[in-house]
Specification:
Layout (H helix, E strand, L loop, with lengths): L4 H19 L1 H7 L17 E4 L5 E2 L20 E7 L7 E10 L4 E8 L2 E8 L3 H15 L10 E2 L5 E5 L2 E7 L3 E10 L8 E9 L29 H26 L6
Parallel strand pairs: 1-11
Antiparallel strand pairs: 2-10, 3-9, 3-11, 4-5, 4-10, 5-6, 6-7, 8-9
């Protein structure tokens, strides 16, 4: 999912400001017609450091790559989803990962901030990508400050944990949530125009978690399990028996004809 919301929301805000300013321009121009028009180039929009996901999001139980290696103790935990992410391929001294998880039953969006200062969360209405992008944009100033724990949202409750490693980050969440998207914010602030992706390496579903239902066709209602194929092939035996009877008939006729032959001296 190429979720490029943070930079695009900032650009939209700037464009709105320019539009509002432009609406008042004619009146001012009449008052001072000699004022030259501004020829300043439009502000450059920096790219986003974004989590590369399918558009529909990902459940841990149906993620393309499964496994628990590199996630906390490396073992699946009942009631808990584990997630392992790579790090973006850029230089940084400080990084905060941001992930959005939707609960389709409640339409709540939980935003997890995996910071060097710890794990923090926001819980807002609207389990969709645009809500994730707009919420993170509002907190961006705090998220790119080192040791800004006091400006971050609430500490994550039990069931939400994580750790930043040299290769990326792992997090653990309550089971069954939909991973909608993610960002990374760095110090120094990333200012290049090119977007930088990072990846979901693998997901660790809890024991007995549901998997994709399209793996095999289900039997029709009321039908029992298919019977196994056992025993000898009846048609092969039948064919062999018919062949043997035919051979016996031919031999019997030949024998009778030989008995009826008379030799005359």
């Amino acid at each position: 999912m190429k979720l490029r919301g943070i930079a695009r929301i900032a650009a939209a805000t700037a464009a709105t400001a320019l539009l509002i300013g432009g609406l008042g321009a004619p009146a001012r121009a009449e008052e001072s017609p000699s004022t030259p028009a501004s020829s300043a180039p439009p502000p450059r929009t920096p790219g986003d450091i974004y989590l590369n996901l399918p558009d529909e999001g990902v459940y841990a139980a149906t993620a393309p790559k499964q496994g628990c290696t590199g996630i906390d103790t490396g073992a699946a935990v009942p009631g808990t989803d584990g997630w392992l992410f790579s790090k973006p391929a850029i230089y940084f001294e400080w990084i905060t990962y941001v992930f959005g998880f939707g609960d389709e039953k409640t339409n709540k969006l939980t935003i997890l901030y995996m910071s060097p200062d710890g794990v923090f969360i926001d819980v807002v209405d609207g389990a969709d990508e645009s809500t994730l992008a707009s919420t993170v944009a509002k907190r961006k100033a705090s998220l790119v400050k080192k040791s800004a724990a006091g400006d971050l949202p609430q500490r994550a409750p039990d069931g939400w944990t994580g750790y930043i490693t040299k290769d990326g980050t792992w997090i653990k969440t309550p089971a069954g949530l939909l991973l909608l998207g993610g960002f990374a914010l760095t110090v120094p602030t990333y200012t290049d125009e090119q977007d930088v992706p990072f990846e979901l390496v693998r997901a660790c579903a809890p024991p007995g978690a549901a998997i994709s239902p399209s793996a095999s066709p289900s039997p029709s209602p009321g039908a029992g399990p298919p019977l196994p194929v056992t025993g000898t092939n009846v048609w092969v035996l039948t064919g062999a028996g018919v062949a043997l009877i035919a051979v016996g008939v031919v031999l019997f006729i030949a024998y009778r004809r030989r008995q009826n032959v008379k030799f005359v001296a």
